[in-house]
Amino acid sequence: MDSLHILVAAHHDWFSGAQVALVNLIGHLRALGHRVTVLCPRGEGSAASWYEQAGLPFFVWDLPWAVHDPPAAVAAIEGTGLDQAAAAMAAQSVDLVISNTLVQLHPAMLAARMGVPHITWAHELLGGDAGLKPRTVPFDYYIAGLASLSDHMLCCSQAVRAEVQAASPATSTSVLFPYMAPDLPAPALEVPREGPIGLVFVGDLTARKNPRFAVQVLEALCRRGHDAVLDFYGVPRDESRAVAEQVERSGVVDRVAFHGFVDRWRDRIRGRPIHLVASTCEPFGLTLPECMAAGVPVVASASGGPSELLPAQWLYRVGDLDEAVHAVETIARSHEASARHARSLHDRCTGLQRGVQQETVQAALRTAFSRFRPKETTALLFR
């Protein structure tokens, strides 16, 4: 395939999990010889600083997420410079557009107005995320509408792919894990043979991430006679107050620490670390392979992506406290062996290998061009 000029559309101006995935995608595209320009919501912030440092041109087009009210979003996009944006990108000789999310529509509409192929990279499970589920149309109807404006849909896991295919069976799809394995193996953490069970919760304190369940796991471990601690690493969100109150009521204040967002949280872990994923729905879970690469075992809810990365004994049914505690205890009994197993799982997972990921990206580009057809942006989508 000849070198392409690809416009990649971001939906965050800070380094969320999806933004990390976007950076990895840009790395794949550049490694394949393609030129990348970024469409982003703001011209400042940590993401914009990274674009500048990476030598990436970027354009700013700030629009609200479309997922909450798709019909209103379509009207707003049509009325806020779609033709001008299409002309500007056509002047840059953009060959293809990639949306890095399901929650936006304007990159897909932009590609349609320009008459170039469009790929969506889906990082969300809309059916299980109350915070993202559309309010004015059924979520599967929204996915089908976006699929109608896409020539191919990359999905961050098989779980996300299944949701997309259920909503739009005829859509071309493939799976691209959003994690990029490091060039050099991550150094294994130096973990003491003794010490408390160190539960590590990484993620914003939201209802989907389910931080209150993590406190319940800690309480249960303590009741069963274990020495255990719990560290939260993530931005305070809508669940922050409820979690703090729960910690106060449960009498485990001296065992819980709230660190906020920490870039290198692995340098601060206590005891024998076990990454606890409590999510009610998890499209992929970037922290899972990051931890596995460093030899940190993971216990996770079988909530989507984790089921594709972890062995059954490290999984538990969403909200099942007994299963979660049993999985933690199983790892804690042989933590050193579990740490070695985590690294082995990371290294053996084909979907995490950089070469395989680049082949998937290149195949998606070819598919998008082979399936490209003109699309009508003025149709009353979602009505």
UniProtKB/TrEMBL annotation:
InterPro entries: Glyco_trans_4-like_N, Glycosyltransferase_grp1
Superkingdom in the source lineage: Bacteria
PANTHER family: SULFOQUINOVOSYL TRANSFERASE SQD2, TRANSFERASE
Natural source organism: Ramlibacter albus
Pfam families (alphabetical): Glyco_trans_1_4, Glyco_transf_4
Domain Glycosyltransferase subfamily 4-like N-terminal: 16-166
Any one GO molecular-function label of the UniProt entry: glycosyltransferase activity
Coiled coil: none
Signal peptide: none
Protein known as: Glycosyltransferase family 4 protein
